[in-house]
Amino acid sequence: MHVFDTYANPGGLCCLCSHSTNSYLAYPSDKKPGWVEKVDLFNTEKPSVKIEAHDNPVSCMAMSNDGTKLATASTKGTLIRVFETEGGTLLHELRRGANSANIFCINFNKQASKLCVSSDHGTVHVFMLDSPEKNSRSSLANATFLPKYFQSKWSSFKFEVNNHSKFICAFSQNLDQHSIIALCSDGTYYKYLLDNANDTKSCQLESCTKFLELGSR
Asked: What is the sign, positive or negative, of the torsion defined by CA atoms of 50, 56, 58, 60?
C-alpha cells in the first residue's frame, strides 16, 4: 500500500489514470496551497512531478484518458489550467468567467481535444484544446498595454442547465463526440448537442430524462 501526504484536503480530492501504460495519481501537494503532485504508481520510487497550478487551493481536477494531460481549477473558479503530466508544463490557461464559482466537474473527451466544465452558476463551458483559435477571445486581446484578463481564452461553447441542483458533465462516448451529458443530483439526465457548422456555435437540448426518483424519507 502506498501513502502520499496532501495539503488540507477535506473533500478527498484526487484523480487517477489507469491507462495500460500510464498509471498516474494526482493530488493536492502538501508543499503549498494550489500546488498539485503527480506520481507514477508503476514506479513510486520515481520523484513526483510538482505543479504550481494556482495561487488558491485546488478544488477540482481531472486527467485525460491517457494520463498525458491534467486540468485543474482553484477555489476561486475563474481559470482552468491544463498541464502536461510528464514535466508539469502549462499548455492552456482557460477562463470560465470573471466572477468566482464553485467548480463541480472537469472532464476531457476521449482524445483530450476538448474540455467541459460545470459550476454552481448552472452553466457548462466547452473549450477546444486541439484548436485553441476556436475558443472565444476579446477583440482587445492583442492590445499588449491592457491587463492579462483581456488576453484570456474563453469557452467555445457555453450553455445553461435548467436545473437548480448540483450536476456533473461529460462528453458522450459516441464516435462524433459532439454531445454533452449532464447528470444532476436530483436524478435528472440531460443530453445537449453541440453544433459548430458554418462557424455558428450553438447548443441544443436533445433529451431530458428523470432516471432516478428521489422521494423524501
From this structure: negative
